[in-house]
Every structure is written in structure tokens, then in C-alpha cells.
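Long-time lurker, first post. I've been practising inverse folding by hand and with some scripts of my own, and I keep getting stuck on stretches where the C-alpha cells seem ambiguous. Below is the full C-alpha cell string for one chain I'm working on. Before anyone asks, I'm not after the true native sequence, just a reasonable design that respects the backbone. If someone could post their per-position residues I'd love to compare against what I wrote down in my notebook.
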């Protein structure tokens, strides 16, 4: 269903209730691909959808104008979830694609663009479309080199593409409509941790630029539109992009015969007894993106793996690869633990990841146990957890 956000500015996107995978992100709540249509002397579509949602997009546009009358398509970011319907749309409309220099480079590499018309825009460039003026602001590496956002000055709307997004499928289009504001922030935090975290040091500078704009709506390309809680989500972005962490431990493990699981819970008990907030996850039962949301602002990252064939247990290796790519803040304490049969290898491999992430490593002889931990082993791990609670980063 099309929604009019302001006079002649419409949400015309698509909701995918079933999608459960987005380049490694388990979208357990589905996702939305938000496109926006501005009807003016020149009709402008801002971002498109994945290719299989083209029909939904056309249905939405058609309820407002004949899609053939689109003059410009702004491509804020060339990743397939926003550019995937471009080929069909350009065949239908012959519209000019407005994008950054990197956006054009990436579109040329993804599609046969030989017959496309482009308008490549610089940072801060403006374009009059009739009653309105659009301003294009480059936001490179949030999260691709081509990213930009589009600001409509007269209507005070920021079309922010991936920034401020959430991977959720909902009937609600606006932040003030959702039942749980806290859950909405958690969805935005999970999105931030899994999409924007590697480049979070760039966020404050972008927010500074946005602070100079008068904004009534932030319209991201995924999830709900921000209207009532703009100040709050901007402040949360500043908080998530800082190195500040909570007195929180994320204990992540996998287990073959429950030995490493028992170790995880014993360390967690010690930390909990000393007032540290704890989260315990078995990797193979938990989406990696859920874990990374908790890693974002945790002080302690505690990872356990059995040794299997002189190596990490594969689910833990998967988590470590994913986490390394997302580059959490280095202001964290890393602890490696695990059980083994005859030759312990997993903890040293976990510590290699911690070293590359510049975590402070805390070690202890109780963290490696042969076969099954005994009562006295678990007591030592609990005591270790209590001592750990007093460590500074
Ligand atoms: Fe929503 Fe980077 O694509």
C-alpha cells in the first residue's frame, strides 16, 4: 500500500515478509526495501528494490503516476537491494540515473549500462525538480564507497538509504506507529552492528553534516521512517559509533559434548555474581547478527570452542570470521576458553583473532580443560569470572 509522507512525496517500496538471509545477516523479521516517489515538474524515484520485487514497486508507483513519467531515478547506493530493479525501470521509463561517481562505476560493473543516461553528482550538488530542490550529500564507506544521501530542502526530508535502517517487515511505516519503541531501537542497533560497524568511526562526521539540516523525516531504505524519534536515533548512532562499552560480557561458545558449555556457564556465573550483565550464546543456535548486536557495546568478549581435528570447532570459526570483518571497537577484553582431548589448539586460534582486533587478552590456566570439567574445574572458572569482573580495559 502506497503511503503519502508529505504532499506529493510517497513511500512506494516493497515488503518482504519471508526473506531470511541477507549476505550472512539472518533477517528473522524479514525486511523492507523502501523506494520513494516525488511528484513534481520532474518526477523522481529515490532508490529501487531487489529485482524480484519489481512488480510490487511498479504497482505502487502506478497508483500515483504512470511509471513511464518518471524522469529521474536517484541511486543513493548501487547494492543490488536498491539497484536491482533499475534495469527493468530504465527499459520502461528511459529515466536518467542520478548517482555518485562511485555509484556509476559500480553500476557499470553490475549491469549493462550502455544505454543508460546518467547524471553524476558531486558532494553538496543541488538539482531543481520544480517546486523542490534535491541536495546530494556523499557518505562514502557508510557502508560502500558509493553511498550518498539525498535531502529535499522544501519538505525537510532526508532520504538516508542504508543509514538509520532496520531489517524488519512491518505494516507500520513510521516510528510513531510501532508498538514497542525499545524493540525498534534494538532492530536499528542490530542493523548498525552488522552493516555499519566496520566504518563507525566515520559516523560522527556524517552526523555533524546532518545537524546543519532541518529534518522532519529520515526516510531510510529499510525499515520504518523516523519522524517522532529523529533526535533519539541520531543520538543512538553517536553512542553506537563511540568506543563506550557497558559493563557487559558476551559469552559465545559451541560445544560437542557439553564440556565447553559447562565452562561458559561457570565463567558467566562468576561475572554475574560480581554484577556484570551477561549474555550467553551457543553459536550454532543463534544468528550471528544477534550476537554482533550484543558485541557492539560489550566490555568482555568471551569465546569458547572445543578443539576439533587440531582446530576450531567450525561454528566458532564462522563467528570469528564474521566478527573480525565487522571490526568491533578495540576497547574490549577478550577471553578464550575450551575443552580438548589430547592436543589443545582452539584457544590459541581464538586469541589470534583477539590480537588482530587489538582486544586486551586475559588468560588463565583454568581456561583449557581436558575432556569433561570436574566440580573443582568449574569452581576455578567461576572464581576466574569473579576476578575478570575487576579487570579494566
Ligand atoms: Fe541496503 Fe547496502 O544495501
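-- Answer (accepted) --
I ran through it position by position. Result:
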Amino acid at each position: 500500500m502506497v503511503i503519502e509522507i508529505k504532499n506529493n512525496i510517497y513511500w512506494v517500496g516493497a515488503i518482504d515478509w519471508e526473506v531470511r538471509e541477507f549476505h550472512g545477516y539472518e533477517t528473522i523479521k524479514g525486511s523492507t526495501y523502501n523506494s520513494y516517489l516525488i511528484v513534481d515538474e520532474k518526477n523522481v524515484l529515490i532508490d529501487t528494490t531487489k529485482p524480484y520485487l519489481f512488480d510490487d514497486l511498479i504497482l505502487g508507483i502506478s497508483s500515483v503516476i504512470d511509471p513511464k513519467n518518471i524522469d529521474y531515478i536517484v541511486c543513493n547506493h548501487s547494492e543490488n537491494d536498491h539497484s536491482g530493479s533499475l534495469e527493468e525501470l530504465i527499459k520502461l521509463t528511459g529515466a536518467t540515473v542520478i548517482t555518485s561517481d562511485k555509484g556509476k562505476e559500480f553500476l557499470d560493473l553490475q549491469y549493462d549500462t550502455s544505454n543508460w543516461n546518467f547524471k553524476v553528482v558531486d558532494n553538496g550538488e543541488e538539482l531543481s525538480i520544480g517546486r523542490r530542490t534535491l541536495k546530494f550529500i556523499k557518505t562514502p564507506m557508510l557502508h560502500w564507497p558509493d553511498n550518498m544521501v539525498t535531502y529535499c530542502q522544501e519538505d525537510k526530508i532526508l532520504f538516508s538509504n542504508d543509514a538509520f535502517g532496520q531489517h524488519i517487515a512491518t505494516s507500520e511505516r513510521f516510528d510513531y506507529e510501532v508498538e514497542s519503541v525499545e524493540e525498534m531501537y534494538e532492530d536499528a542497533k542490530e542493523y548498525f552492528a552488522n552493516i555499519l560497524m566496520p566504518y563507525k568511526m566515520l559516523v560522527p562526521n556524517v552526523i555533524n553534516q546532518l545537524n546543519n539540516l532541518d529534518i522532519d523525516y529520515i526516510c531510510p531504505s529499510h525499515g520504518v521512517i523516523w519522524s517522532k524519534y529523529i533526535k533519539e536515533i541520531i543520538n543512538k548512532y553517536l553512542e553506537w559509533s563511540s568506543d563506550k562499552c557497558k559493563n557487559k560480557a558476551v559469552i559465545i561458545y559451541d560445544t560437542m559434548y557439553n564440556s565447553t558449555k559447562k565452562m561458559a556457564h561457570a565463567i558467566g556465573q562468576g561475572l554475574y555474581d560480581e554484577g556484570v550483565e551477561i549474555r550467553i550464546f551457543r553459536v550454532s543456535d543463534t544468528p550471528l547478527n544477534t550476537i554482533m548486536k550484543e558485541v557492539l557495546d560489550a566490555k568482555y568478549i568471551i569465546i569458547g570452542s572445543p578443539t576439533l581435528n587440531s582446530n576450531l570447532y567450525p561454528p566458532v570459526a564462522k563467528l570469528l570470521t564474521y566478527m573480525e570483518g565487522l571490526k568491533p571497537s578495540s576497547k574490549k577484553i577478550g577471553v578464550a576458553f575450551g575443552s580438548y582431548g589430547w592436543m589443545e589448539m582452539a584457544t590459541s586460534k581464538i586469541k589470534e583473532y583477539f590480537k588482530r582486533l587489538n582486544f586486551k587478552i586475559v588468560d588463565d590456566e583454568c581456561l583449557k580443560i581436558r575432556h569433561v570439567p570436574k566440580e573443582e574445574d568449574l569452581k576455578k572458572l567461576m572464581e576466574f569470572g569473579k576476578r575478570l569482573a575487576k579487570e579494566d580495559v
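A couple of notes from the structure itself: The mean pLDDT is 97. The pocket of MU-OXO-diiron is lined by residues 77, 79, 81-82, 143, 162, 221-222 (CB under 6 Å). Happy to go over any region you disagree with.
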